[in-house]
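Batch job 17 of 40 flagged for manual review because the log was empty.
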Amino acid sequence: METRSEERVRAVLRRAPVVMEALRVARDVDVPDWLIAAGAIRDVVWDDTHGRPPTAIPRDVDVAFFDSADLTPDRDRIVEEALRARAPHLPWQARNQAAVHLWYPRRFGTEVAPFRSSAEAVGTFPETASCVGVRLLANDDMLVVAPHGLGDLLECVCRHNPARVSAAFYEQRVAEKGWRDRWPRMRYVRPRQG
């Protein structure tokens, strides 16, 4: 059943030409279980919350996909090349969520269990407002995946998601991103210490 929150997210994204283009391109490339997620979605919604037009070009367009048949780094590269061939002006970043458990410990020093889907992986992103993914369906409807709900995204709340990153990593990330300057109405929730 569609919720008003999902309707609102869809309406905001439909007013963002770059996001709509990215969704159409990702749909054309059609890798398994794909979602455009994280900042490309969050930033557009938070800009809208602040009464701003969507950012012309996002910092990156994260495409989470799930292909357990090919866990090699080449799979990410091949998907990014296919996306760039169709929209070279967009900053694509494609990651096979089926392979995250193989490289994440080397890069971040923390083990993660293998994921079973893109939606499960998106649910582990550092902030709950970033744990949202969208897929453009064949009929141009949008599938909205939000494992932690849409409240924090729509209310411009920055809250730590402890599923994958520590509170210290989250706090450092928020400080480095400059989100408080960009979105002054953002409500920052300090992580629980423990």
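Reviewer: the log was empty due to a logging misconfiguration, but the result itself is present. Residues 136 and 142 are 5 Å apart (CA to CA). Unflagging and moving on to job 18.
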